[in-house]
Design a protein that fits this description.
four-stranded antiparallel beta sheet, 4 strands, about 30% strand, alpha+beta
Length: about 70
C-alpha cells in the first residue's frame, strides 16, 4: 500500500509530503527537506486558492501521518 502510494507520485522512498485541497481536489507535493517557512507558505497558497478543507499528509516509516 505505501509503495503504491509513493509510486503514484513518482517516488520510491520517504519522506513524501503532499498537501491536499479538499474543495478543489488538487494535490501539491512539497520538497523532501521542509522548514516552517516552506510549509506555511504552501498552506497559505492553498488556503488563498480555496476555502475548502485542507489535509497535509506525509509518510514516516510505514505510517501515514495526517495533520
Amino acid at each position: 500500500m505505501i509503495t503504491e502510494a509513493l509510486e503514484s507520485f513518482g517516488r520510491s522512498g520517504v519522506p513524501l509530503y503532499v498537501l491536499y485541497n479538499g474543495k478543489s481536489g488538487t494535490l501539491q507535493m512539497l520538497p523532501e527537506l521542509l522548514n516552517p517557512g516552506i510549509a506555511l507558505d504552501a498552506l497559505d497558497m492553498v488556503a488563498a486558492g480555496a476555502s475548502g478543507g485542507l489535509v497535509g499528509c506525509g509518510f514516516v516509516g510505514d505510517r501515514v501521518c495526517l495533520m
